[in-house]
Amino acid sequence: DFYWESLRAALEIDSIAYHFERAQYVATLDRHLDLTTFGVSVIHRPPSALDDEAGFVRDVRAWLAGREADLRRGMG
After folding, report:
1. Strand pairing class (41-45; 9-13)
2. How far apart, in whole angstroms, are the C-alpha atoms of residue 22 and residue 25?
3. Are 9 and 40 in contact (CB under 8 A)?
4. For residue range 12-68, what is the model confidence (pLDDT) as tens digits?
């Protein structure tokens, strides 16, 4: 998982194996709600997203650029 404090942005790598049981799944949803409530933008990606490293980096950079633009416009 990653957190960019200046952008209030969090990236979580969430696997099916970890979320196999209901309790873990609900805990992730609750954490997402808590972070969002505090103004953090949260995205979730599966571990398989790392298989395409260039695509993963491109997607994350685009998301972070969008987050930065939103914050500059006062939308975050």
Report:
1. parallel
2. 5
3. yes
4. 998 877 667 888 888 889 999 999 999 999 999 999 999 999 999 999 999 999 999
